[in-house]
Amino acid sequence: MAKTGRIDWRQLIRYGLLAGVAALYVSVIGMVEVFSQRSLITGVLTLGQLLLFSAPVLAGYLAVYKDDESQTAAFSLLKGVITGLFSSLPLIALVLLANAVNLRAMFVNVSPALIDILVFGQGTAVGVLLLLLSGAIWGTLGVIIHLLPDKTRHVVLVGLSWTLGAGMLSELLIQVFRPLFGSGFIRFVFQGGALKLWASIVVFILVTLLDWYWSKRREEVKTKMANLNPTQRRAGMGVGLLILLILPWILGTYLSEVLDNVGLFILMGLGLNIAVGLAGLLDLGYVATFAIGAYVMGLFTSTSSLGVGELNFWIVLPISILAAMTAGFLLALPVLHMRGDYLAITTLGFGEIIRILALSDWLSPIIGGAQGILAIPKPQIGSFVFRGPQEIYYLILAGCILAIFVSSRLNNSRTGRQWMAMREDEDVAAAMGIDTTKSKVLAFTLSAASGGLAGAIFASKLGTIFPHSFNLLISINVLSLIIVGGMGSLPGVVVGAFALVALPELLREFAEYRLLLYGALLIVMMLARPEGLWPSAVRRRELKGTEEEEIEGGEGAPVAVTAD
Amino acid sequence: MALLEVNDVHAYYGYIHALKGISLTVEKGEIVTLIGGNGAGKTTTLRTISGLLKPRHGSIIFEGEDIAQYRAHQLVAKGISMVPEGRGIFAKLTVLENLEMGAYLRKDKDGIAKDMKRVFELFPRLAERKNQVAGTMSGGEQQMLAIGRALMSRPRLLLMDEPSMGLAPVLVELIFDTIEEINKAGTTVLLVEQNAHMALQIAHRGYVLQTGEIVLSNTAKELQKDPTVQKAYLGIE
Ligand SMILES: Nc1ncnc2c1ncn2[C@@H]1O[C@H](COP(=O)(O)OP(=O)(O)O)[C@@H](O)[C@H]1O
Ligand SMILES: [Mg+2]
User: Fold this and answer.
1) Which residues of chain A are within 8 Å of residue B104 when distances are taken between CB atoms?
2) What is the ipTM of this complex?
3) What's the CA gap between A17 and A20, in Å, rounded?
4) How many CB atoms lie within 10 A of CB B61?
5) For chain A, which residues make up each domain, given as ranges?
6) Residue pLDDT, tens place only, B39-72
């Protein structure tokens, strides 16, 4: 029984205007203009346009999201058109207002270039009509996406994301592909740092086909993966390791540099994950361990006048880690009885104290104050010097592998269970017989280790260190990547680091709006996927599900409590 | 010698004087109940005995040893186990894992397996839900789990804080039956309750707590007959 129910105008207007205001906001703060300089599909779509249009698409989608099945498609589409039209109004108002008065006095970013983008370069009158039209189209597209059968929608969305992603990362792809396939291929596929239209269509079709094929074979592949014998497993890991080993030489210097930064953040993420993810201790001063590791390395290896001993990198490396761990231990003592927000504020203060000490005149005769420490030599093994980003990469890779190994052992150990219990409820953990004081101190101390390691590598990678490199933003970055990746999850740390460190580095336009994007991303994550991109618990639950029968069959079989 | 002897214990939260000289004893094999209204200090008493809160004055003697200065995790090893107020189960862990946490300090795998079996006999519902995530179970099941978990450390003294809180009457009855059963099997129980009616039915003796002081103590039978108790806690006019 198809019914063409009443149109709920208030709801449509609300969604439309909300989307419009979002588009207005990103325009007025200058994001649209900056992002418009990056084109995704040559001559068809820029990143700025994607930003503008995604709002009405989402509004159209949401406008019909809660409708029941009985409504006709035509009726739903009408709703999309209406929502889309309303979403254009705020932008139209902006265009008209900018023509009438000088908005730039108040909103510096409302430039003629922005207005030109908004009216599609067509002048006010035509532009306003085009804006209405585009709003209607994108609103309708949102509805169409909603109307698609679930499977088709999934395939289409995956295809779209990959195509847009490929467009966004064109410059990176060009760099990677040029040495592999030659300039001819690059000119064939890309133009002006973006995908050509035909190429993007090919990407879309390829990805949809692959996704469709994958959805058919997924179960099969999964069981195959699960049934691999140890030799095959080891072979697979060997191949993975090999790829990791040759990666910097495929990617070139610039991308290796990006990869190094990601790696350092993975190291820090793995460390902080012990305190925050495993033990549930919100530490906002993690940068302190990074700074201490870096300064110890700098101080004892530097060949400048500040240098003490000019020791070898490999001798100082463990000292840096130990120094950071000592700092972690000392920090743990005063905060033993603090919980939640008090703990967060205190650790925040600790991070700042270290930075301010590094900056202070008082310590500047020893560690250089604002001038920092210069002339820190590169690490060396025999005659092999870790000179550039491609060589340093191996150091960071080794550190990450070590940290992942240690973390995963900890996670599955008795200590890991102590932390887990403490994270859920300290009092109850104590009532289980867990010494929460010891667990906390241990968590802070171990957590500091890989921060110190990251700092030490950072110092010798750059060759110079300054106090301002160790600001609060680093702590926030590391914490954010853990949250985005999924609290307590090791793969989550890696995924989170790529999402929050690599992407902003690759999309330079993002840099200016980094914090805004972090905020937006965190809010979206908390609403849509609070467990993170690659959560740990859910996965664990899945594994449990398959173990069920074994436990049942064992009839009260001793469930390994102490087996680590 | 009594299993537990609390002598003139004073406890504070900052400046708030929550326990003003509590004295009570629990003999081996008994169920002793501590009844009292909201805010009387029942939870504080249990927190003090279990080592989560240090008394500022007074002694707590367990099996002849003064345990007032011990911390909570040390007392678990000494044989005191607690079912905390509001259950305090590990919501993200499965039933099985919760029980394993209860046996955290133990190393004897066979004994653990045996006790686990016993818990499942006591609460067949938990056996059916072994691999369910604890947070997704009903209130009654969570309470069963909290009790089962406390038993996994093989306590000689079981402290329970309002196990009937927020449960349907049928479940309350089931829980109290189980407490009796646990007691008959040899575990001494100190039971804190607002539900005085049920608590006095299964307890041997009882104490009435009011604003941090014990105002009345007697056998459960006598307390049931006591006019003040009837009026204030049993709703009998
Ligand atoms: N964490 C706390 N901080 C300060 N005061 C508390 C705290 N916990 C309990 N109190 C106070 O101590 C008194 C006794 O509380 P409690 O032992 O929880 O009572 P009951 O368990 O009998 O309801 C109350 O006045 C309560 O307000
Ligand atoms: Mg209470």
Assistant:
1) 417, 421, 432-434, 561
2) 0.89
3) 5
4) 17
5) 1-147, 151-213, 248-482
6) 999 999 999 999 999 999 999 999 999 999 999 9
Q: For residue B39, give the ligand nearest its CA.
A: 1
- Candidate from A485-489, B67-71, B190-194 with smallest mean pLDDT: A485-489
The predicted structure's pLDDT at residue A542: 41
**Does position A138 have pLDDT exceeding 50, yes or no?**
yes
- The one-letter amino acid code at A301 reads T
Assess whether pLDDT exceeds 50 at residue A366: yes
Distance from CA of B183 to the nearest CA of A (A): 20
The preferred substitution site among B22, B34, B44, B160 for testing ligand 1, maximizing ligand atoms within 8 Å of CB, is B44
Written as six digits, the tokens of A478 are 């590391």
Report which of A174, A144, A145, A172 is spatially closest to residue A158, judged by C-alpha positions: A145
C-beta of residue A175 within 8 angstroms of C-beta of residue A254: yes
Minimum CA distance residue for ligand 1 atom 27: B39
B1-79+155-237 adopts what CATH topology? Rossmann fold (3.40.50)
Answer positive or negative: Cα dihedral of A298, A304, A306, A312: positive
Show residues of chain B in contact with A488, CB under 8 Å.
none
The neighbour count for residue A27, using CB atoms within 10 Å, is 25
Count Cβ atoms below 10 Å from residue A320 Cβ, excluding itself: 31
Token digits for B82?
Answer: 């607690």
Distance from CA of A539 to the nearest CA of B (A): 12
Q: What is the mean pLDDT of residues A173-193?
A: 86
CA A314/CA A320 separation, integer angstroms: 10
Identify the helix (H) or strand (E) that includes residue B210: strand B205-210
Residue A506: band (very low, low, confident or very high) from pLDDT cuts 50, 70, 90: confident
What pLDDT does residue A226 have? 79
Secondary structure letter of residue A196 according to DSSP: -
Q: Where are the domains of chain B?
A: 1-79+155-237, 86-152
Q: What is the pLDDT of residue A538?
A: 43
Q: Reply yes or no on whether the pLDDT at A198 is more than 50.
A: yes
Average pLDDT of A65-81?
Answer: 84
Which amino acid type is present at position A235? A
Say if CB A449 and CB A321 are below 8 A apart: yes
From B236, B211, B233, select the one nearest B220 (Cα to Cα): B233
* Span from the CA of B20 to the centroid of ligand 1 (angstroms): 13
